[in-house]
């Protein structure tokens, strides 16, 4: 038995070898995950600089309000773009801008020339702590990150 190792020493040697192999593989995997995380973080930072996150509400005028929170849109998107991103929309355009005529199948309705139902858009004004009616056509208002836009189906009368 002069040159032979005992069975216990062979097992211990194999365990040390297995542990060493495991450590090398785990370290390589950890390095890969770290580098992948760095790559994805850089992509996310690039994406975030080209997008805005907005909250979009659709109020159907019957008590149903549907929210689409933290909706990512390309920078430069309008209030109309936001609505089109989350709903089936029909609209008309003119020199003054876009006019929404239908959202998800709910269409404007004229009861007379002085009364009806139409889609109007609002923006939450943090300074006033309330929704304010859009001051321009929806395709003319450019969204900022964090904007809250609400589209309402409203009754009007002159």
Summarize the SSE layout with pairings:
Blueprint: H1 7-49, E1 51-59, E2 65-74, H2 79-86, E3 89-94, E4 97-103, E5 106-107, E6 109-112, E7 115-125, E8 130-133, E9 148-157
The unreliable regions are none
Which sheet architecture does the biggest sheet show?
6 strands, mixed
Strand content: 35-45%
**Fraction of residues in helix:** 25-40%
**Class by alpha and beta content:** alpha+beta
Taking the alpha carbons of the first and last residues, their distance comes to 110 Å
Radius of gyration over C-alpha positions, nearest whole angstrom = 30 Å
Gross geometry: rod-shaped
H/E element sequence: HEEHEEEEEEE
Question: Explain this structure to me?
Answer:
With 158 residues, the chain is α+β, with helices and mostly antiparallel strands. It has helices at residues 7-49, 79-86, and strands spanning 51-59, 65-74, 89-94, 97-103, 106-107, 109-112, 115-125, 130-133, 148-157. Strands 1, 2, 6, 7, 8 and 9 form a 6-stranded mixed sheet that branches. A 3-stranded antiparallel sheet has the order 3-4-5, with helices on one face. It starts with 6 loop residues before the first helix and ends with a strand. The model has no long low-confidence stretch (mean pLDDT 92).
Summarize the structure.
The protein has helices spanning 7-49, 79-86, and strands at 51-59, 65-74, 89-94, 97-103, 106-107, 109-112, 115-125, 130-133, 148-157. The protein has 158 residues and is an alpha+beta fold.
